[in-house]
Amino acid sequence: MSAHQKETRTRIPRTIRALAVPIILVWVAYTAAVNLLVPQVEKVGMANAVSMSPQDAPAVIAAKRMGQKFGESSSDSIAMVVLIGDQPLGEAAHRYYATLVDKFKADTKHVEHVHDFWGDMITAAGVQSSDGKAAYVQLNLAGDQGSTEGNHSVDAVRKIIDDTPPPAGLQAYVTGPAPLTTDSLEASDRGMIKMTVVTMIVITIMLALVYRSLSTVLLILAIVGVEMGAARGSVAVVGHLGLMDFSTFSVPLMTALSIAAGTDYAIFLIGRYHEARQNGEDPESAYYTAFHGVGHVILGSGLTIAGAMLTLR
User: Which numeric CATH code is attached to 3-51+183-310?
Assistant: First the structure.
């Protein structure tokens, strides 16, 4: 054995090579377990979502303190229910508005305060459009924007609107910061599936053009699939056990990083292995050469990504 072979055939790559089959089986079994025994990470994320507002920001602190001092709310979630009519709003619109306000006030679990300005002749003009065809009521909801409780509160308001049909010629809409945040989270969740599919298609085409080998392409895709499944499942387990709260925006970010990292690291290893084989090395020597040349690069890259994600707390 040459000095170069002694240098590259260290304990870690020798152990990994000797236990290759058990290691693969353990990772496949782990990936299957964490994805089958707990809900998918998207559902866990929605059930353990944190507020999208920076709770230490002066504006948020001031808004919450103001709500508490005035006895209105303890959160930063604000929603608007807008009534729009084909004609200037009349008695029927006022009756419908009063019905909604009564239902909002009755739902103390989700609605902390109702700013009933349109129901008072003195303040009605302040929440009605100049042409008289639109008016709104402001709601302070339970739970901060983007949190699980806040999203449930938005859904509760929308259900009240859906269950209370307006009179002819009148429409009711739910808008405001809290509903916008909830809609953004749902759109992000729906878009992640499309993003994942498109990304995998692009990666498959790129690998096919570069390697021109079906077996190599399938190998890399299998590596990426197991790695992404293990990452998503691990995060789902941590969230399901209540050990960590996270925003649903973090789920698409994690999925994208998993696909990118898995693809890059697989290309690093296979590319270095092919290079060694082209230089005349046998398969075993090429394996050690690839591990010795790329292992520290993968470790450094992974730690860099982990460190960058740590700063996003």
Answer: 1.20.1640
